[in-house]
Amino acid sequence: MCGIVGYVGTENAAPILLGGLEKLEYRGYDSAGIAVSNAEGKIEVIKAKGRLRVLADMTDNGKAVHGSCGIGHTRWATHGEPSSTNAHPHVSNDKSIAVVHNGIIENYLELRDKMIKKGATFVSETDTEVVAHLLRYYYTGDPIDALTKVMMRVRGSYALGVLFMDRPGEIYAVRKDSPLIVGQSGNGTFIASDVPAILEYTRDVYYIQNMEIAKLTADSVTFYNIDQEEITKELKHIEWDAKAAEKEGFEHYMMKEIYEQPKAIRDTITPRIQDGKIVFEELEMDEEELNAISNIILLGCGSAYHVGVNAKYILETLTRIPVSVELASEFRYRNPIIAPNTLVIVISQSGETADSLAALREAQERGAKVLGIVNVVGSSIAREADACIYTWAGPEISVATTKAYSTQMVVLYMIAMVLAQARGLITEERYAELLAELKSLPEKIERILNEKERIQWFAHKYASAQDIFFIGRGLDYAACMEGSLKLKEISYIHSEGYAAGELKHGTISLIEDNVLVVALATQKELYGKTVSNIVEVKSRGAYVFGITAYGSYTMEDVADFTVYVPKTDDLFMTTLTVIPMQLFAYYVSVAKGLDVDKPRNLAKSVTVE
User: Which residues are catalytic?
Assistant: First the structure.
C-alpha cells in the first residue's frame, strides 16, 4: 500500500522523485523519504515522519539534493510505527545499498535473526530493512545475482527499488505480487507503483511480471528473469494524460472525481454500443459459452464488494442465473465450491488488490473462468484473468472511490443485458428501453450535481453527528452499504447500512432522539414498505434524510429532509442514489476540517493482506 518511485536520467532526481511521490501519496502518508546517488559517489538519504510536505520543506522541494539517480517512497505503516527511523529508504550498515519497498516480507523475523548472526545491526522495526542487509550479504559486485538470491529467500509480496553505491547511474527494480511499472522518456527512465507518478514525464511504460528484474540507466532498460537470463518486453502507451491526475481547480480530488462520473460513464459505455446493441469483445465468450454459465460468483473488497451486492440483484433479475457475492479477503479461506461452468467476476479499481488477486488465483485453480473488471490497464488482475473489461474511468486519486464505483456498476449492467439477450430472456422492447436508460445516466447525474448546495447545507448541519444509519430495501439496501462506507471512511463518523426490513430484528434498539437515519426509497414495489420503516424510526426520535425519485413526493410527509433524484429504471437507480450520498460524505468531511483525499489509516490501493 506504499508508493515507490525512481528516476535516472539527465535531470536532478530529487524534484522528480518528490513530484512522483506527491502523485502517489494516496497510497500512504505516514512518512516519506528519498535516496539519491550524489556527486561524491555516495548515497544520500533524507526521510521524515508525516506528510510529504515535511520532506519537501527539508530539501527545498528537492533543490538541496543533487544527483541524477534516485529512489523515493511514501509509507503506509505495517511493521513499525510511523517515524523517521522506520521511513524508507532503508540502507545496509555500510550505507552502500539503499532500498524502497511496497509489500510485506512474511518471513522477515527469521531472516532478521539470520542477518543478526551474520553481524548486521538493525535500526528500524520494519520488515523492509532485512532486504537491505540481505542484499549486502549476497552482493559481490553483481546486482542481478544478489537480487535473485534475495528473491529466492524472501516470502511475501514486494516491489523493490534498489541503489548500489558502486553502480552510479543505475536503478534496479524487482516485483512479486505488488504493482510496479517502468517508464521511459527522452530524458531518463522511471520506476513507479502507479501511472500517475510519471504521467508528467512519459506515457510509455513496461509492465514487470512476477519474479522479474529491471535494470535502469539514463537511456536504457534491461529485463531479466529469475534465472538471470535477459528477456524482452513490449513498450505500452498509456492513454491517460497528465491533466487527468491533477485537481484542475477543485479543492479536493474526491470532488473532482465525483464531477467526472458523467464523463467516466459515457467513456465506459459509448464504445461498447454498436448499432443499438452492447458489444463486449473483451468477454471472449460466444453465445454457446454464455448460455452454458450455470452460476456466477462476484468477488471484491470494500466498494467493489458493494458493486457486487448491487449486481447480484440485477444479474439474477435479468438472467435468472444464481449469483453469489463474496468478500475476496475471505474467499480462499473457506475452501470454496466451484461448480462446473461457473463464471467468477473479480472487481477492482487498481487491479492490484492483494486479496482479490489471491481469490482470482484460487478460482482459476479450481477450474473457473475468471473475468476481471478493472480500471488500470496492464494491472495484475487484468493480466491474470482469463478476460478483462476496463472501466475507462481515468486515474482515481482520492482514497474514497467514486467514479470507479460508478463505472464498475455500468459495466455490470451491460454484462447482465448481454447475458439476458444471449439466453433469450429479454424482449427487444425491454432491451431497447434499458439501453436508452443506460445512455441517459450521465445526464441525470449532472442534474443531481447541479443541486448539490442543498446537500452541502444539510451536511454542515449534521457534521457533529456521532452515529448515522442508512436504511433501504432491495437495491436501495445495497446502495446504503456504499453510502455508509463513504461516510465512515472520510468523516470518521460511525455509520452502518441496514436492510430496512431487519430493523425490528435488533437494529431499531439503536435509534434514539435526533439520531440521523438516511433512508433510500426508490424501488417502486418496495416504496410503501420502506416508508413504513421510516415511520418506525421517526416514532423513536430519529431525524430522517430521505432519498427518493422525483414524483415520490409522499416522502416529505415522513422525512425531515428530502433529496430527489431523476427517475430511471429501478435496476439502475443505485447509480443515481449514490451521488447524493457521496456528496453528503464529502461535505461532512469538509465541515469537520478533515483531509478528504487522505483519510487516516487508509490507503488507496490495498496491495498487502
Answer: 2, 604
